[in-house]
Amino acid sequence: MNKLKFLYDVVQKLRDKEVINGVATVEVNKDQAKVFYVKNEFQKNFVTMQTKASITSEVNYEGKQVKHQSTTEFTKHCPGNEMHGMHHRLFRHMNHAGGRCGSIKDKLTKLSFVLGLLNSIKVEEQEDKTILVTLEVAELPEDIKTLLQERMSHAESDHSRGHCCFMSEFCSIEKGRFSFAMTVSKNYDIEKIVIAFDGARRNEENEQHLLDIVAELQLNK
Description:
By secondary structure, this protein is of the alpha+beta class. It is built from 5 helices and 9 strands.
């Protein structure tokens, strides 16, 4: 199977959709105890730019317990393509990481990063004819791992300025393991995406805590 052609077809099929709906969940555990959970049942119309969402969240962190449930509906008006805007924000963030000015060397570093990820992705057909796309950080080249660590360190630096104490804890995970799995139908429709990240960190008292995050996206037909 041509991996690049397959991924291209998946992106094209997603791009051509007028409406997507599904369920997205994120669960965060610290020392095997759930400290954060959010569930978002959503519908997004790419023609009208209307979004409907039903959100449930729970936080149990440092003695604070909060539960919230809400529904929302809004229409986003933007002059440009939304996917283009997402790509622009991603590369702008990569530009600012480390205070770089976007030199040719930096651009080649970004290209090397993207190609390294693409090369490490595995695409395998399953018995039920679905396609499983996976990525494991442990299998990445060392230079790509170093770049990922730099991004994490940059995020930790931002959060340490007081932007978000909760997220700062998870950005400073030591020796974290990351995995990505995506199930795609034979018609190139994305059915499910699961992202898992876990590791350990030490607090100011040098106590080690185990942390893990699992994010799952289930798209409906």
